């Protein structure tokens, strides 16, 4: 797609459309059902976590939001291992094992940090973080915890320097090598939706939790 539009504005849309319209190959030796189902499972689990953001919804009264977050992050590990295993490729399977080992190991640190926050605010709910930070951000009291949580979120989202699953010299591109067209798009949408979601939570926990203020999204851009 070479029609970039004014200042290249249409280029991302054109690239995405071109990728969606590409032919999706079917692997002869793959487990077809798991191969097709696992990217959808991965995307669904990430999108499901967006209901925890404390907008004016019924989830505002959900008092076990933190536990729900930890549970879904734990379940999402299975979708990654299924994506790597179902392709029946040594590269994808090794990458999936790396990813799962990394995510599980850092989830222990994540669990300890979130439990310590829950003890501080005396609630499992997301709404309470807006209430307790009306006059002072939790960042000022938990500077080290906020930096550690930032590092853990980098590991959870497979960002630099924790991008071991995409070691190009060893694993080509990671667990998504055998995917193309819409399924490739689903995997990357899930990855970047997860990055945005974890950024939301980092700002919510430590830098003020009012999702209806413009300042919240300015802070989100810096994260």
UniProtKB/TrEMBL annotation:
Transmembrane segments: 32-53, 65-85, 106-129, 135-155, 183-207
EC number: 7.1.1.2
Record function comment: Core subunit of the mitochondrial membrane respiratory chain NADH dehydrogenase (Complex I) that is believed to belong to the minimal assembly required for catalysis. Complex I functions in the transfer of electrons from NADH to the respiratory chain. The immediate electron acceptor for the enzyme is believed to be ubiquinone.
Pfam family, one: NADHdh
Similarity section: Belongs to the complex I subunit 1 family.
Protein name, per record: NADH-ubiquinone oxidoreductase chain 1
GO molecular function ontology, one term from the record: NADH dehydrogenase activity
Localization per Swiss-Prot or TrEMBL: Mitochondrion inner membrane
